[in-house]
Amino acid sequence: METESDAEVECDLSNMEITEELRQYFAETERHREERRRQQQLDAERLDSYVNADHDLYCNTRRSVEAPTERPGERRQAEMKRLYGDSAAKIQAMEAAVQLSFDKHCDRKQPKYWPVIPLKF
Predict the structure, then answer these.
(1) Strand, coil or helix: 87
(2) From the CA atom positions of the chain, what is the Rg in Å?
(3) Are 88 and 26 contacting, i.e. CB atoms less than 8 angstroms apart?
(4) Which domain of life is it from (predicted)?
(5) Cβ pair 53, 116 in contact under 8 A
(6) Mind listing the pLDDT tens digit for each residue in 7-64?
(7) How confident is the model at residue 1 (pLDDT cuts 50, 70, 90)?
(8) What is the Cα–Cα distance from 49 to 42, expressed in whole angstroms?
(9) How far is CA 90 from CA 20, 55, 60, 76, 81, in A?
(10) Which of 13, 55, 68, 90 could pair covalently with 59 via S-S, beta carbons 3.0-4.6 A apart?
């Protein structure tokens, strides 16, 4: 009974001719590998930012033990002031009222969030 393994197979490449067609094939193969590598990186980035359907909108897994570097809401307040001028406080109060109403209804009804599934797989 005879067995073959990869270690026993030898290949003589000393007289192998590398044609232009073979070079083009290697170049195309390398382009495909690079394209696949880029696509895998994009897929990994997309997967990192993906929110599972069983988590709600406010799922925050990142935590820190360090003190905040700026006052809470300071950046938002400056942005509102830039956008709305003197009416910023009024608009911010209206936004807060709508958000509180939404939160109250969500707490009362406990809705299941509809999963966001991409149409293109």
Answers:
(1) helix
(2) 29
(3) no
(4) Eukaryota
(5) yes
(6) 566 766 677 788 888 889 999 999 999 999 999 999 888 877 766 665 655 556 667 7
(7) very low
(8) 11
(9) 72, 33, 29, 14, 11
(10) 55
Q: What is the DSSP string of 35-82?
A: HHHHHHHHHHHHHHT---TTS-TT-------SPPSS-TTHHHHHHHHH
> What's the full length of the chain, in residues?
121
CA distance 22 to 112: 57
Q: Which two tokens stand for residue 68?
A: 């905040």
Report which residue type is found at 108: R
Neighbours of 88 (CB within 10 A): 17
User: Which tokens belong to 33?
Assistant: 């590998």
Instruction: Write out the DSSP string of 30-44.
Output: HHHHHHHHHHHHHHH
The residue behind tokens 């911010």 is 92
